[in-house]
């Protein structure tokens, strides 16, 4: 947008500009501080964590040793947690993207009895926070005896009303009616039209929904915490929190601090990397959702 | 958001396109096509199974009590009466209310100012700032709470180390007085950038020629931001506020993680969700936990409704 701005605005207003940069810089430091602290701390041994200054490196770097300790602790259960996180997030991401795309397509391109009710229900459901459903879901799953399974984490995560809304709005713009009509006249089946035309044209929107659902599940804590009790089923978030609680409780668990910090670093990196690589899709999703 | 015009072809189904002789039947079939229902089916089934049914089940469960003697019995609204009279529940509500009244305005003002700056032509490297500000949102709340917990550390945290080195008194992050502020800081760190992106997107929709007109009229970037842009994005701001209110009432992860650092401060009734969690998993009182969830949802609905009514006077629309 810089090119569109009038020159006078770009060149004048020294005071305003200094104030703006000052505020941005302050907030930049604030945003980076915890991540910087995490990166620095991940290079320290347990003793160094307590003896050296927190915001600077200790005399020697022990990142490799910490990572080895992380992946070796408890028979390498951390690797299992990472795998679980990946499985849960991928399954929820692809599941949600598929379900939301189909429903969003129906809402966007068809007029059918019940459509308005469904649309209203989806807009209402966007307002219902996931956490509000966790306890009811647990009570139900406990009754059915399906807590402590992969499904107990994946199935609830696949329901993503915001994704349906985003797909509906996206398909409104991205898939022209004429193209669908032409395909129908050519004798294409509805399933074929969906698979070959709609999915292809709506791909950026689908990637956005997939990303949003993936990260939501990757970052989720309350649901898996409540649903799972076997350590080998837990995702990284729940496992790390458990180690952290052990470490904080003292009584010998303190040797875990450096491991927890290394684990936090490893747990954060995939989403940060994905976020930086696929920024366009994240911001696109939020933008569509808010501007309408 | 209004749907565009549909052509008749859109409602034809493949099976209805058989022979011209059956034209009248075809038209009747075409009026209620099967395809959209099939496309909606997976979502509708999942929604019913994972949202509606659990809520119904929890509602039903909240009407019963497990007794040591006599097993499970129907008690009507007794659990609700208990929750409404339960000081532990209200302590949690009080905490999230205080929290929301301070944290939400601070966070949204910050997000708004940052979005306005990044949308103005005052500064460069706007994409970089935007990306970094938004990054904390990608960090799992558990890990955010964990890192901040270490930063707050009363003996080894860098802030304590700094205070010791300077001879200042140590900051009291994890005490009774400081804890809500400390959690507020974590939530602000996590979500300011997220709200900023939503507001920024709304600002991008403000017509650019308005800026030129304003600058011709002698309005500087600050005046332009406050008098022209700000009123135009009030609806987006209200959307952010509603989502923040909802998130605040559901506060769970951050206090749950910090609990191990300060168990005397974050007790089982610290927030309503922490309380519901401890009811369900420490005391195994499922019926009561279900009732807490519903009373919380009801309070949240009332608060959101009041908020929408109050703010709709200022031109916000939902």
* Number of domain units of chain B: 3
**Structural class assignment of chain A:** mainly alpha
Number of domains of chain A: 1
Helix content, binned percent of chain B: 55-70%
What percent of residues of chain B are in strands? Answer: under 5%
Number of strands of chain B: 2
Mean pLDDT of chain A: 88
Membrane topology (chain A): Multi-pass membrane protein
Family (chain A): Belongs to the binding-protein-dependent transport system permease family.
Subcellular location (chain A): Cell membrane
Pfam families (chain A): BPD_transp_1
Structure write-up:
The complex is a heterodimer of chains A (292) and B (318). Chain A is mainly alpha-helical and 292 residues long. Chain A has one domain (35-48, 61-291): MetI-like (MetI-like fold, Orthogonal Bundle), CATH 1.10.3720. In chain A, 78% of the residues lie in helices and 0% in strands. The model of chain A is unreliable at 1-9 (pLDDT under 50). Chain B is built from 14 helices and two strands, in the order H-H-E-E-H-H-H-H-H-H-H-H-H-H-H-H. In chain B, strands 1-2 form a two-stranded antiparallel ribbon. In chain B, helix 4 packs across helix 13. The two termini of chain B are 12 Å apart. Chains A and B meet through helix 1, helix 2, helix 4, helix 5 and helix 6 of A and helix 2, helix 4, helix 5, helix 6 and helix 8 of B.
